[in-house]
Each structure stands twice: as structure tokens, then as C-alpha cells.
Recover the amino acids of this structure.
């Protein structure tokens, strides 16, 4: 591919980091002679925003290592004109010019094409007395510097975090690792509210087990110096506050010139990342994208999509046949020694009755090889098309791998039964001959064909009320050790062939074990013996924690 | 799904472990009342064959843990009639009966359907003097017991392994970890000969670095007590020998009744796993499968496909609409702290000129987060369809994840450019915002569109002879530290804008750096300046080791 410009173009990029720098680097490779100017209002045009929380604990020791690429290198290697500490303050789309402020002075710069990569900014709520406590957000290096300085100068014993999303949890872990006590306050009933509750409850428990005070279903209603007053009536004595309740697209520049904005002020762009205004394009956290599964508008403020969008826009502006296909949203967060990950849609985002759910519990690698740990996997698929809609997983190891595989399967529009056919690297240190992702395919096939009929953890109370008899087919030791569903009858799976006639013939049954495998065997047997029987999906391992939480 | 038999059927399974036991368990779940009889000539019907080498070092401490499911449990929980130490010696397909030997006596058993899951047996070559040394193979628990007993009774200081495939390498590592010196002898020029040489050379180096004596391009021509005489003229003093040169389908039973056999004596089955003889089916290592990419016959003696096949045959014999779609072959092996993995086809299996190759080097996770290690990834895609044909990778961490993702992409028939769109779990401990799999998509797009034109490590000598000028764009420190391609000109990428006019205008160029990224920038720049220029794919990181090997 070789492209000949009639004249040298000037490309102006507003905002560096993921979207802006990906654009600039790619555009340079495709257009050696054009002028590329990157304006960044902060001091750093390229830094590792996802690494910021880890510098607080010292896990990432050097602040310097968070500065991904130095300006000098960008200039020398990519011939980019990088202007940090230069805030673009207005756009004149008719004259194709922008105004920017640098060193207190106002300058102008004309453009042929303008790329908006302004990202998103932390939301700060209105709280009575917020001015009475030091409070911070964490989005960039200056934010980090302020927090580090506060810690250095004031040696806080206790810090509170408002908002238990990804950043909030990473902050909690890293503050705690630094020896600071942490309170985590969240409005929703769950930490990680983007996940489904039977998954996120385990993140909450991991936080609590690691000494974080978690206040869900809560809000800060008033602040006095060193005291937060919560909606629940509780008081939290604290030294300072970090607010991490989410981000909002930073789109003032475009709003001021009447560009089309959508949900939460996000920028509406077409397939070519073009805004409603000619010669102005946008990428990154500030734009609205299509969720590829639901086909609905969404904001996905994550680094990977921003990188891809920046590169694609460079391709588009260089005349390549590329377009914005949207995103499915894949994410992960480390919570001490656990990982929580998600791809695609959750049950929260779906309409009951349109999908099936599978919960699985298996080891990350062969159980007989040392160091095996549990993976909990939830997969959701469409009742009609059988396409995979989403998956969530948690565990100590191998969580990222399984979600990445399923994310790939979703992107490729595979069905749940296609997961049976996938062939993974198998040796005892890495996985099992039947990996948990294969098992999801097997269970999916059983559900589709009616070989197994499952009910979910949230159906349990209703079914008990309707008179269903629950049968626990675990061993006596497991039942006593882990606890059980109240009112359930106990028949060890290995005694079922002998004892099934003890089960009342007139009862509808729900069988359960610890993970759902033995109860599936029991289900098959009891159905063959003429019972109406359902398998409790995920069984006691799913029911256990969440049932205690909702009580 | 409910299926009503007119009469109770008798299903006879010959051979347990992966294929046979998967079949039996699944068939039982679908058919509660049929009789299922599993004959196993050895003492154990279900054991972890992939775990055997790890018991030698004590990495897997307990022999007991290698016995996956006990017979008693199979009887109680699945109502399986398991007959271990019972060797089936003949089949009478007309009368639908088999003969078997148990406790020195011969018995008969009739069947309605017969499932052959006899697997494969280790190949033992003819070597002069093989009777003069204790030698072993490793395929099952009795084999392992013999090796363990030999070690216990004779305290060997040195063991030799013939055959450097997966088992050979696992044996070498585990014997070494036990404190025994190891010689590894391989006929091919590479260890792990199923991989391409620029990948497997790193396995060889890992073995050597860990103290294994590796003899490639070699054979044992004669054996005296405690001495192996090699083709190379070298002599290896050793205490005993383990032979791991591969396996052959164990298909005598079917051969004797004239069933259709194919390559290497493997069983020919149809889409329903049916052999050429009515009511006789086969699964596992003994059958020939279609490679789903090349559509050619192949033998894939791996646990995962065997498990899947067993389950699918149970579905088929239960009337479900399932069929054998073939396999692509995905595998991994641990070599001390390194992992080597592969999926799909290698260059060795392909016809030059029909495909493109990409070599990449990137970190398993964000470089600024502690503990990042390198992943080397090779991806091969079709020149016309752009479909991914295969991938190989090695490194310390995250190798299994990347190959599993690409294996999923191959199964879903994704093209190389589709890899750009995949959305992975990203946080600094897990991956990079642009994961190496995404990068493969980016590079693939560049190659397809001609944005980058690459040459391979095996082209270097030819291109040098044809007068191409090689330009090394790394830093001076890298060039001196890592070495360089002889005769190459050195211009640091960061000086290229200033110094490119030093390059002779009449020369065709090949640019290289350490991994191929900076040289790609140089390629784009130099092409824009009018040079005919190619990028050395994978650059010095690929060229380095293999060029020393082939000299």
C-alpha cells in the first residue's frame, strides 16, 4: 500500500494515552510526511493509567516505569509534535482551528483532521462536608502524585474509598498492602456491581478476609473532619477519602460546538469514528460504542478498545477499508490472590426467560498435579440461537485464560455447544483433559437437548415454597462440613441406586451436590426412574455464599 | 430427551482410560438400564497417563493420586461392570461375541455394540544389544512401577532417553529433578520435532541449560552393558534406557478380523466412529481422524480428543445428532521453567508459498508490573483465505493462554485480521492493553495490505548472497550485547531520520531490530523514502539461536 498525498496534511490529536497515541503512532507509520500534533493538557502524553494503583503499595516500585514512552522518543522515532501541558480550550470547526492554552497563553493551531481522544474524567458527587476532608480521585500521574504526597506527609492510618468498581478494589488492595486500614463504601448491594451477585459476593468476601471494611448498600451522607457518616447510620473514622464511583466522558469541547452527544454525554460517532461535525473524529473512553452482542449503545472505558479504536481511525484516515465493529467488553480485576473477570453480558443486562445459565466449578489444572486451585465459571447463552452471551469467572489462577477463550468464542459467534469441540493445550501443569470451558459446552448440550433440566440459586426459595423436595446427594461429611439447604433430604449419590425408593413418589425434586456434577448423575437416574427432577445449577458452591448474603 | 429401548442392551468396551471411560460414563447417564462392561487388560481402568512422568521426580508425590477413579466407585455410582486384568483376545463379529483372558482362563462375552478404545502402544525399535541393558517404556502404571522399582533398587546415576518428544522431555526433566544425570537422544535434528526448528531450538537450549545432555541428529547403533554407541561415534555411559520414540495404534484385534485400517495401522472410522464392521466402533489414540485444517488423515494420540470422542460416541449410540468433526491438534509441554505449545499446522506440514508467517516477541503482561516474562509467538496463516493455519509459542508464563485463544480462533475459522478485534481481560498483572495475540492480527493486516513486507530467518543467507544490504536499527548496546547479522550496517532507529541518506540508493534492504517492531518503523520510513525494503520477521530474536544451530 502506498498513498500519495497531494499536500502534506496537519493532523491534530487532542489527548494522548491509549486512544490518542495509538492513533498517532499508527498514522505516522502510514503517512511519513504529514504533520501530527498531539495536545495533552496534563504533563504526560503517554503513561500507564492501569498501573497507577499498584504504585501506591510499591508493587510497582518506580513511578518512572509508569511513563510508557518519553516525549523525546516520540519526537525522534515517530516525528510526532507532542505538546504536553497544553490544554485545547475550543474548536472552530468552520475555520478548522483549535485554541489551546500553554504557559498561561492562548494559541491557535489549524488542522486538516481533528482527533478527539479526551477520555473520561472521574465523577465527583455532591456530599455535605466534602470540603472538610482531603479527597482524591485517581486517573492520571498528577492524581497519583497527590495521593502519594498525602501518604508521605500525613502517614494516614485509615483511608476510605467511595465506589467499589475496578479502581476502588485495586486501591483498597494496594492501600492495605501498604499497611493502611481501608473502608470501602459502595452504593450498590454488591462490590463490582458490573458482575452478577453470586459472583461478586466472592469478591466482597475476599476483601473482608483480607481485612478491608466493606460497606455495601451504603452512601456517605455527611462528612466531618476525619469522620464519614453513612446512610446506614454507621460512622467511619478516616484520614482521607478517594472517590472512585466511575467516570464520565470528557466531551465539553464537542458539546460547546453542538456536536451530537448521547448517553451520559458520550460522543456519537459513525462506523468511521466520525463525529457529527466534518473533519472531527473521536476515539477512546469518550465515545459511545455498540455492544456487539446486544447491539445497544454503551460506554466501555477500557484501555484495550481505546488502543484498537486509535489504530483503526489511523487506518481509516489513511484510506484503508476498516471500520468500528463495536465491543463486547472484557475485563478483569485482581483482588488480593483472587481474580474476577467478565466478558459480554451479565444476567443483570438480560431479560429473564431469554437465556440459559450454567455455573461450573473445576480445577485450573489436573487435580493430581500440585498447586491446583478452583475456578468458578458462569456462562450465559441464548435460549433460541444458543449463542454465548457472556461469561464471568473467579479463582486464584487461570481465570484470565478461560474468559479470554470465551471472549474469543463470543467474538466468533460460537454457540455454547461449540465449546465442546475446542482443543486446548493440555498437560497436567496447565489444564485438565476436559477443561472447564469444554465442560460448559457439555452442560450446554445437555440443557439444550433436555438431558438435564436445571434451576438457579435464585429459584430455590420459590421452589421450596411450591413444595419441591430438595435432595442433597453429597457425602455426610460434606453436608455437615459445608452446610446444606434447609429442609433437604440427604441421600449420598453412592447410595442412590439402593435408596431411591425412600423418596416420596408424589414430590417434584431438586437435586444438588457441591458443584453440580454428582447431582446431574442423580438427576439422570431419578428421571429414568420416573421422577420429575431438576438439577440445582452450580449446586451448593453457588448457593452457599449468596444465600447467606440475601438473608 | 428420553429414549426407550425395546430391550436392555449390552455394551462392551475394550480399553478404559480417556476414550473408554468417557464413553462408559456418558453412555450410562443417557441409558440407565443398559449393561456396560469395560474390559481393561491392565490392572487400572482409569489412571492419569499424562501425570506419569511427574511421579518420577516426586513432583506428584503419591502414586495413588494417579489412579483417577476407583473401580468400586465406577460400580457403585455408574453401575459399570469393570473387568480389569482382563485382556480381550479376539472378536467374533458374526456372533457378536468377544473372547477374553482373565486369571489364565478364557471366557466369552456377547455384545450388542462393541467399543474399541485400545489406544496406542510405545514403539520399541530394533537395536543391536538392546537385551544387554535394562530398558523401559512409559505408558501406564505398571510401566511406571517398573521404572520406580529400577530406580529404587539400583540407584542409577545416569539414565538415557531415546526420543525427544513430549514424553521424552517430561522424562528428562523429572529424572534430572530427581538428581539423575540424563542423556536425551533424538533421531531428528530437533528436539520436539513436531514443532518448527526456530521454536524447538529453544527447547533444546532449555534442556542443555538445565544440564541435560542432548544428542540430536543421532541414533543408538549398538548397546553394550552400560554403554550406548551413537551414530555420531559418541559413547554414552548409562545405567538404563527409556524408549519414548512414539506410539503406534494398538489395533491387532481389528486387524485379525479384517477391519479397514489406515496409516500406521490406525483404525478407519466414519463420522459416527463406526469401523468397517457393523456394531463395532472405535475412539481414542487408535483411530485415524481428519485434521480439520488440512482435511488430511492424521493420528492425534492426545487425551483431550480421546475424551471428546468417547463422549460423542456415547451420544451417537444414544441416538443424538452428533458427529466426529475431526481435530486440529493442540499440545503443550513443560520444559523446566519454560512451556512450549502448538496448535494446528506447522510450516513443516505446509507447502512453501501458500502461507504467511509472523513471529512476535512480547511480554506476558504489562512490562511495568513485576514479574513480566517474554512470550515468543509464531502464527501461520493462509495467503489466499487469510485463515489461521497454526501457531506455536514458548516462554515462561502465559503460553498456554495464547495458544488456547488461537486454537479457539482456528476452530471458529477466524482470519488473521480477526485477531485484531479480540477483546481480552486486561489489567497489568494479566496481559497488556495490546496483547501479543492482537499484535499478530495487526501484523497480519500489515502483511495482507502490503504495508509491511517481511522475509524469514531462513531467507537470510540467500538474500545476503543476492546482495541485499541488512540494516540493524537496534541500539549500539543491543548490537554488541546480543550479536548481529554478519555484514549488516548499523543505524539506530532513533538516528534514522537524520542518517538514512548514508544508505546506498542502489541496494535492496532488509531491516531488523530485536523483535521486529522498530525495524517495521524503519521499513515504513525507508519505503516512503524510495527504498526497496523488507522487514526481517521476528528479527534478531528469531534469527539468533537458529542461525547458530544450522551453521
Amino acid at each position: 500500500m502506498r498513498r500519495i498525498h497531494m499536500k502534506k496534511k496537519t493532523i491534530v490529536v487532542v489527548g494522548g494515552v491509549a486512544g490518542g497515541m495509538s492513533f498517532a503512532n499508527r498514522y505516522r507509520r502510514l503517512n511519513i510526511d504529514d504533520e501530527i500534533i498531539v495536545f495533552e493538557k496534563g504533563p504526560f502524553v503517554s503513561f500507564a493509567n492501569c498501573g497507577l494503583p499498584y504504585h501506591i503499595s510499591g508493587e510497582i516500585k518506580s513511578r518512572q516505569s509508569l511513563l510508557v514512552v518519553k516525549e523525546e522518543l516520540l519526537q525522534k522515532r515517530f516525528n510526532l509534535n507532542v505538546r504536553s501541558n497544553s490544554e485545547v480550550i475550543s474548536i472552530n470547526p468552520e475555520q478548522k482551528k483549535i485554541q489551546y492554552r500553554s504557559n498561561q497563553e492562548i494559541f491557535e493551531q489549524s488542522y486538516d483532521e481533528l482527533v478527539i481522544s479526551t477520555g473520561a474524567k472521574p465523577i465527583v458527587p455532591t456530599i455535605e462536608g466534602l470540603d472538610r476532608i482531603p479527597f482524591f480521585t485517581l486517573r492520571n500521574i498528577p492524581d497519583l502524585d497527590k495521593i502519594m504526597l498525602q501518604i508521605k506527609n500525613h502517614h494516614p492510618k485509615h483511608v476510605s474509598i467511595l465506589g467499589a468498581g475496578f479502581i476502588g478494589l485495586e486501591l483498597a488492595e494496594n492501600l492495605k498492602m501498604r499497611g493502611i486500614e481501608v473502608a470501602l463504601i459502595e452504593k450498590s448491594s454488591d462490590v463490582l456491581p458490573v458482575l452478577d451477585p453470586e459472583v461478586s459476593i466472592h469478591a466482597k468476601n475476599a476483601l473482608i478476609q483480607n481485612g478491608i471494611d466493606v460497606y455495601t448498600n451504603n452512601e456517605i451522607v455527611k462528612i466531618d473532619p476525619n469522620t464519614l457518616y453513612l446512610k446506614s447510620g454507621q460512622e467511619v473514622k478516616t484520614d482521607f477519602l478517594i472517590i472512585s464511583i466511575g467516570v464520565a466522558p470528557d466531551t465539553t469541547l464537542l458539546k460547546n460546538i453542538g456536536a451530537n452527544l448521547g448517553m451520559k454525554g458520550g460522543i456519537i460517532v459513525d462506523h468511521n469514528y466520525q463525529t457529527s461535525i466534518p473533519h472531527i473524529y473521536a476515539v477512546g473512553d469518550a465515545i459511545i460504542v455498540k455492544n456487539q452482542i446486544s447491539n445497544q449503545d454503551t460506554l466501555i472505558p477500557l484501555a484495550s478498545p481505546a488502543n484498537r479504536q486509535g489504530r483503526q481511525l489511523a487506518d481509516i484516515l489513511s484510506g484503508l477499508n476498516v471500520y468500528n465493529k463495536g465491543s463486547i467488553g472484557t475485563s478483569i480485576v485482581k483482588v488480593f490472590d483472587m481474580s474476577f473477570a467478565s466478558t459480554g453480558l451479565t444476567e443483570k443486562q438480560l431479560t429473564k426467560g431469554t437465556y440459559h445459565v450454567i455455573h461450573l466449578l473445576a480445577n485450573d489444572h489436573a487435580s493430581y498435579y500440585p498447586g491446583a486451585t478452583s475456578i468458578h465459571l458462569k456462562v450465559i447463552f441464548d435460549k433460541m440461537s444458543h449463542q454465548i452471551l457472556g461469561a464471568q469467572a473467579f479463582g486464584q489462577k487461570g481465570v484470565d485464560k478461560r474468559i479470554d477463550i470465551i471472549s474469543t468464542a463470543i467474538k466468533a459467534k460460537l454457540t455454547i455447544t461449540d465449546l465442546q469441540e475446542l482443543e486446548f493445550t493440555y498437560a497436567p501443569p496447565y489444564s485438565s483433559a476436559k477443561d472447564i470451558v469444554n465442560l460448559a459446552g457439555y452442560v450446554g448440550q445437555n440443557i439444550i437437548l433436555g438431558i438435564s433440566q436445571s434451576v438457579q440459586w435464585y429459584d430455590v426459595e420459590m421452589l421450596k415454597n411450591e413444595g419441591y423436595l430438595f435432595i442433597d446427594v453429597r457425602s455426610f461429611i460434606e453436608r455437615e462440613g459445608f452446610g446444606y439447604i434447609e429442609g433437604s433430604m440427604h441421600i449420598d449419590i453412592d447410595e442412590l441406586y439402593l435408596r431411591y425408593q425412600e423418596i416420596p413418589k408424589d414430590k417434584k425434586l431438586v437435586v444438588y451436590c457441591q458443584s453440580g456434577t454428582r447431582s446431574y448423575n442423580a438427576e439422570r437416574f431419578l428421571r429414568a426412574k420416573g421422577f420429575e427432577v431438576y438439577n440445582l445449577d452450580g449446586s451448593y458452591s453457588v448457593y452457599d455464599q449468596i444465600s447467606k448474603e440475601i438473608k
Notes: Chain B has four domains: 10-121+248-317, 130-245, 337-448, 454-550.
